Amino acid sequence: MTGRSNSGLADNEVTRMGFIGTVGLVLHPERTCAPTVEAVVRWSRARGTKVLGLAAEVARIGCEAIPVEAEEMAASADLMISLGGDGTMLRTMRLATEGHAPVLGVNVGRLGFLAEVDIPELPAALDAIDAQRFTVEVRSGVRARFGSAEETALNDVVLLRSPGHKSAAVAVRVQSQPFVAYTADAVVVATPTGSTAYSFSAGGPIVSPNAEGLLITPVAPHATFNRSVFLSSSEQLELEVLPHSGDLAIEADGLLVGHVAPGDTVHVTMLPAAARVVRLGHTTFYQRAQRKLRLTGSAEHS
User: Fold this and answer.
1) What are phi and psi of 191, to 5 degrees?
2) Strands 248-252 and 156-161
3) pLDDT tens series, the chain, 302 aa
4) Catalytic site positions
5) Residues contacting residue 7 through CB under 8 Å, at least 6 positions apart
6) Distance between start and end Cα atoms, the chain
7) What are the CA-CA distances from residue 218 to residues 53, 96, 239 (Å)?
8) How far is Cα 86 from Cα 240, in angstroms, rounded to an integer?
9) In Å, how far are 26, 102, 107, 194, 286 from 119, measured between CA atoms?
10) What number of CA atoms fall less than 13 Å from residue 117's CA on the CB side?
11) For the chain, what is the largest distance between any 2 Cα atoms, rounded to a whole number of angstroms?
């Protein structure tokens, strides 16, 4: 395997990763990652490379990584390493949208859908990346604009019923034309990456990360039309909160980022190539999906 991207990136975008000059670390907010961080520090020290960590996280575990703010890490790192689960990986990918570095996911604890390696495999993974034996998987993002606010997510943006309020009544407009209205507990707008998260639990389909588009899925719909809709990446999407809707909260990758009320409109666009994920050829997307989602059935028949 070489450093050539399997997702259409120019060769020179990957070959400059032939030598890792600076590594940026993002840690799980609760689990102890200190031994793994020290393993990265030892690996980097032996090669004369630099290790950056987010200031608050470095202080929490007391490691030798250089404390920096998120903006400096995104601008300086050649490789971002996520130590945690899928939530930490998404946070790292959001940080990476501001820079050029691909993200390596290291699973800490339970099986991470987005992670590429487990902790014991990390030194060998760094060797492979340093020697350009890796590929880059491009992941799209989604951007939501409401009022004066703007938020970016890698998994999904969700409009959901606020506690004590009426259901979410949301009209979907595509290319400024009315298409369908949902009445539901929530409406999820997911990227292909996010198709296996909240959207999947609500009955939405699994979408290959190589696809480009936005997946709209209602959660516990109360109306006749209860199907998911998949839009092309170039199509403009607007979500209008209808007059008979309750007040709605907005979440981006599971984080509360704002509120909207009847009459408000959320403008949603896809961000192609928002983040890049390191792949070392250990597993395919479909193998990871089988493991994480515990898929059984026809694949088990002889």
Assistant:
1) -80, 170
2) antiparallel
3) 444 444 444 443 444 344 599 999 999 988 878 889 989 999 999 988 999 999 999 888 888 899 999 999 999 999 999 999 889 999 999 999 878 899 999 988 766 678 899 889 999 999 999 998 999 999 999 999 999 999 999 999 999 998 888 999 999 999 999 999 999 999 999 999 999 999 999 999 999 988 999 999 999 998 778 999 999 999 999 999 999 999 999 999 999 999 999 999 999 999 998 999 999 987 788 888 887 787 766 555 44
4) 86
5) 135, 136, 137, 138, 210
6) 31
7) 38, 29, 12
8) 30
9) 14, 18, 7, 24, 22
10) 22
11) 63
**Looking up tokens 């607007």, which residue turns up?**
238
Long-range contacts for 86-90 (Cβ within 8 Å, ≥24 apart)? 86/112, 86/113, 86/114, 86/115, 86/197, 87/253, 87/254, 88/26, 88/27, 88/28, 88/29, 89/114, 89/115, 90/114, 90/153, 90/154, 90/155, 90/253
Phi/psi at 196 (5° precision): -95, 10
Phi, psi of 260 (to 5 degrees): -135, 160
Among 181, 278, 269, 264, residue whose Cα is nearest residue 233: 269
Cβ atoms of residues 263 and 88 within 8 Å: no
Question: What tokens appear for 162 in the block?
Answer: 């606020």
Cα–Cα nearest to 124, from 137, 135, 133? 133
Separation of alpha carbons 250 and 261, rounded Å = 11
Matching residue, tokens 């007059």: 243
In this structure, which amino acid lies at residue 127? D
Number of H helices, E strands in the chain: 8, 18
